[in-house]
Design a protein that fits this description.
Number of strands of chain A: 14
Oligomer: homodimer
Shape of chain A: globular
Helix content of chain A: 25-40%
Structural class of chain A: alpha/beta
Order of helices and strands of chain A: EEEEHEEHHEHHEEHEHEHEEE
Largest sheet of chain A: 6 strands, mixed
Distance between the termini of chain A: 27 Å
CATH superfamily of the largest domain in chain A: Cytidine Deaminase, domain 2
CATH topology of the largest domain in chain A: Cytidine Deaminase, domain 2
CATH class of the largest domain in chain A: Alpha Beta
Strand content of chain A: 25-35%
Strand order of the largest sheet of chain A: 9-8-10-11-12-13
Radius of gyration of chain A: 19 Å
Number of helices of chain A: 8
């Protein structure tokens, strides 16, 4: 695919494994199944979290996770990131010493068995946050969906994985996949930080549901538009309206629903040129 | 639907909210969107976790969560469960005092940003665990899928929600839904505990992916068969093979794949009588 800075790399060793089973007729079948392995993230000398991840871009994942948790605030610049593949450990080092004993205690009490979020910390910094007012053209939305859905991906080849794509206008730029949709977003956040990428002119596309957690992550990253094939939760909608995020869901073929920021949409697409999604597109809305 | 002990209760107030937005033509649309609200779980005097949940069956969720985390071991019997709806707090009280300072510290270090799991604790107790050898008839699988997929549910009416169903033979018994698939499983676990339900003769059906976490929860609950419309992760498959769990995925229409325990399947279904899934079934495989 042209135009991507990072696209799914299907040739990468170790992201999937061949698993032998039987199908409904009892015949032996072999399938590619995505890997899922623990990655322990350290911030300086402190162990922060063990994430279950597919295993690519551990440095971006670690950096983006720490950033999205607000743990890099007051830490100065990131001086170094070391990844030990054998141990499954990534260490992010910063200028200034950090101590997140208190934050970790808080996390203990609030870490989500529900949707994997660190609820208490995540809401921090949202008060008073208003995202920049960004235009969204419907022609971009349709172009992005068409490009992303036909980009070769682990999802299309192995399934059971979430994708998140950083886009600008009608161009997908960075396409990350992971077993947890939060990881995919965190990897994008880490990439943006390492590459000093602007957020105000970007669009975040995800295959996952638009829960409060996804909306909060997007807001923390400063990206003013979030779009998904999947649906909403009520609280996700509420937060999007509060922070001025344009929130688009159920984006399939011609159809979508916008539940926040609809006044920023420019309706420039020629609908007669947009195809309805083929019934067997190979894509589903992740529940 | 007949035969259910608990089925989704669509008349229950407060599980969904009407949200106004615009559709792809710019026309105003109103849709039902599932709620997502914090529930803080206490074990005796100790605050354990805040889960994001749809809000039904908080007592089962709290009990099942604590049980699946192994936090009730050594606690004696559960003497009382108090739920304060206004505060969003549920307190589980046990015979013996509990102190999970150490466990919570461990959880801090291992709670999953990836798939919402508490990795360190979850793996505890799996060494040497072998599930009872249970028969699985393909006729049951097809009957369960047909019944569950046509049962009125929040998924069918609002989407963006996961379902998990406790079944016996060809009969679905307890159908729980939640914004996080882990919550749906935990609610089933809590129900089983409160009702002294046997596990060895049960089948667990879920709409979500068969990640390591789902397989581990099912194993901890002692249920020997786990089936899903969705796909696998490699580690989930590995753990299922290790503990003797029959693992069925991508169950749609006639089709399924079995990647662990296939030798326990009785192929008694008349395939010519099973319809392929209609292309627009309203059901998707959750990514």
């Amino acid at each position: 695919m042209t135009g991507y800075i990072i696209a799914p790399d299907m040739s990468r060793v170790g992201l999937t494994r061949r698993v032998v089973g039987v199908d409904y007729t009892g015949a032996e079948v072999t399938q590619e199944v995505v890997e899922e392995r623990p990655l322990t993230i350290y911030l300086n000398s402190q162990e922060i979290v063990t994430a279950m991840t597919i295993g690519d871009y551990p440095e971006y994942l670690a950096l983006g996770f720490l950033r999205n948790q607000g743990m890099l605030e007051g830490a100065g610049s990131v001086t170094r990131i070391d990844y030990d593949e054998e141990l499954g450990v990534v260490v992010v080092r910063t200028d200034h010493a950090t101590n997140h004993e208190e934050k970790l205690k808080k996390k203990t009490r609030t870490s989500g068995c529900a949707v994997g979020t660190v609820f208490g910390d995540m809401m921090e910094g949202l008060e008073g946050l208003i995202l920049p007012r960004a235009e969204l053209r419907t022609s971009w939305l349709y172009a992005l969906a068409a490009k992303i859905n036909t980009t070769p991906s682990l999802y299309l080849s192995a399934g059971a994985i979430h994708g998140t794509v950083l886009c600008q206008g009608d161009q997908p730029l960075v396409y990350m996949e992971d077993v947890g949709r939060h990881n995919a977003v965190d990897k994008i956040s880490g990439w943006m930080m390492q590459n000093d990428a602007s957020a105000a002119d970007k669009i975040l596309y995800t295959t996952g549901r638009l829960t409060s957690e996804m909306v909060i992550k997007c807001a923390h990253m400063g990206i003013p538009v979030l779009a998904s094939r999947s649906g909403f939760t009520a609280w996700g909608v509420e937060i999007a309206q509060q922070v001025g995020l344009t929130l688009i869901g159920r984006l399939r073929g011609k159809r979508f629903q916008c539940v926040a920021g609809a006044d920023r949409i420019t309706w420039d697409a020629d609908l007669s040129a947009i195809k309805d999604e083929p019934k067997r597109s190979g894509r589903k809305g992740g529940a």
